[in-house]
Design a protein that fits this description.
Its main location: membrane. The chain starts with a helix and ends in a 7-residue tail after the last helix. 72% of the residues lie in helices and 0% in strands. It folds into two domains: 54 residues; 215 residues, MetI-like (MetI-like fold, Orthogonal Bundle), CATH 1.10.3720. α4 packs across α8 and α13 runs antiparallel to α14. It is built from 14 helices and no strands. It is mainly alpha-helical.
């Protein structure tokens, strides 16, 4: 039994190590390429480490030729507005679907949730026409309005968590004279910090990496987000891989910092609680 347990343990560690290598290898390769000059990249193997490492690509990104400061600033603004809007509207909608009683509540929820099955490509042309008719094409509001009013996934995630909070606790608050908003902000949300933190990470990562909609609705450098600006670094005749990898590395760093800051809270959100 001990022998079998030892083999199983080692096999588990081997699988985990292989998985970690497969996940981390693209990030290491991106950083390694970003620290090479174009000549080094052309002359050496792709897997060869930079010799010597240089920061020229990162310096060039923030120079006059590429001016990567503007896409970063635009992306931060877009993600911040979408994050606040999605949290606010998703929390209100999820609490209504979880705790308030009204006719057609469950039917409305499942019909709304069914929109998760609709691909983005199906709605992108109607959205583009709506924004164009409203005179919002190539503006900041065109980037945020389609996503700022919550999402089916966020509402579903929060609703399921809110339903797990003991009803006796909320009923006691009602007996003490607390209204709906007081219960939501003083009891439900403090108990839901792990799932809210998880939703923050999901929302930020999703819209930080959003590419298709910003590419379609904007033109020119004024409202160019990070993903579109990174794609524009490549030309028909030149891949500019060292510059592209530098831009990719810069785009990854904020997401890593965010995850490291909230990783414990995210882990708590996926543990089984005693609510149910």
């Amino acid at each position: 039994m001990r022998g079998r347990g030892g083999v199983a343990t080692w096999a588990t560690y081997v699988v985990l190590v292989v998985g970690a290598v497969l996940v981390l290898a693209p990030f290491v390769l991106s950083l390694s390429t970003a620290l090479k000059t174009p000549r080094q990249f052309a002359a050496q193997s792709v897997l060869a480490p930079p010799a010597p490492p240089v920061a020229d690509n990162f310096v060039a990104l923030f120079g006059e030729q590429y001016d990567f400061t503007t896409p970063i600033a635009v992306t931060v603004q877009v993600v911040a507005v979408i994050l606040v809007g999605q949290l606010l509207f998703s929390i209100f909608a999820a609490y209504a679907f979880a705790r308030l009683r009204f006719r057609g509540r469950d039917t409305l929820f499942w019909v709304y949730l069914a929109t998760l099955m609709v691909p983005q490509a199906v709605t992108i042309i109607p959205l583009y026409l709506m924004m164009t008719e409203a005179g919002l094409r190539n503006t900041f509001w065109a980037l945020v309005l389609p996503q700022v009013f919550g999402s089916p996934y966020a509402i579903f995630l929060l609703r399921e968590y809110f339903r797990g909070i003991p009803s006796d606790l909320l009923d006691a608050a009602k007996l003490d004279g607390a209204g709906t908003l007081r219960i939501l902000f003083s009891i439900v949300l403090p108990m839901s910090r792990p799932i809210v933190a998880t939703l923050v990470v999901i929302t930020v990562v999703t819209h930080w990496n959003n590419f298709l909609w910003p590419l379609v609705i904007t033109s020119g450098p004024t409202w160019q987000v990070l993903t579109v600006a990174t794609s524009a670094l490549q030309t028909q005749y030149n891949g500019n891989w060292t510059i592209v990898m530098a831009a990719t590395t810069i785009a990854i760093v904020p997401l890593l910092v965010l995850f490291l800051a909230v990783q414990r809270t995210v882990v708590r959100s996926i543990t089984i609680t005693g609510f149910r």
